[in-house]
Automatic annotation (TrEMBL):
It catalyses: L-threonyl-[protein] + FAD = FMN-L-threonyl-[protein] + AMP + H(+). Gene3D superfamilies: ApbE-like domains (3.10.520.10). Coiled coil: none annotated. Magnesium. Can also use manganese. GO terms for molecular function: metal ion binding; transferase activity. PANTHER family: FAD:PROTEIN FMN TRANSFERASE, THIAMINE BIOSYNTHESIS LIPOPROTEIN APBE. Mg(2+) binds at residues 167, 285. Its EC number is 2.7.1.180. Keywords: FAD, Flavoprotein, Magnesium, Metal-binding, Transferase. It comes from the Bacteria. This is FAD:protein FMN transferase.
Amino acid sequence: MLLNKSWILIVFLISLTSYRPAEWNRFTITGKAQGTTYNIVYYGKDSVVTKGMIDQKLMQLDSSLSLYKSYSKINQFNNSEKGTILDDHLLTVVKKSLIINKDTNGLFDITVYPLVEAWGFGKTKNKNVPNDSIIHSAQKCVGNDLIELKGNYLSKKNPCVKIDLDGIAQGYSVDILADLLDKNDINDYVVELGGEIRVKGDKKPSGEKMKIGIESPSEDEFETQPFNEIIKLNKGAITTSGSYRKFYESNGHKITHIINPKTGYPQDNELISVTVYAEDAITADAYDNALMLMGLEKALDFVEKRKNLAAYFIYKSNSGTISKKASSEFLKLKNN
């Protein structure tokens, strides 16, 4: 299974309709995968997509992208001296990662795994804060300049280079499940995996848009409270990255899982969470961590310059209160 993005701050909210004509049925599929849970709701005449079909897709994804499967393609690369041939899933995710790395000036970097391990958020968990020497050593193994993709072969310039797809793989998995529904002529659905969501169509027979709830932290930014924002969608994807769902404390300091590959240290700015809207989940998922590392002002400016993104920020103001800010496109989503 993939690393659990349990810090994700969103769930989908779909209410049952008291009456449905015979031509519309509501089908729900739930289960566990990738260290978390999944929930799929779709509307149609027949249950053409089953739990078995969903689980088979998720097992295929694990065989490619999971750090927790010793035989996976990602582990074959990580354990190699020089690199390996990628399967279709890993190739797609790596290609997208390289694009986002360039667009974010290196803040999204799949080679960050040596730093993730150093800070205790890898497969082996620990709460020992690394010293500067350990961080400096790990950084020698981090950087997109240390990998090269030619065709379907990903090479590494140093055997210590390891990749971590935790910041993009669940979004990609959501897209793969959505694609499965599309190929079976299902046009109204919500796919949710570990809090990452993709929506298409609307509720039947009412025609209402799907509702997405965004969870908000309390005045203590490392605690949560019920959903304080709800948006309605009939297409697109929503993902969230937050600093207060996966962390540990050391000498009174909160150490979050969001590691800056350029500095080697965890995120340390006013942002508490970033919710991103994009056309597909792989895109939204890839950008949310990078936006967290930018800080509010730079992240908002970054999003406003890109037509394919919208974002909602929760942050701690200078006065210590929890505040919120939305990009102009996200405000349109809230008000539609």
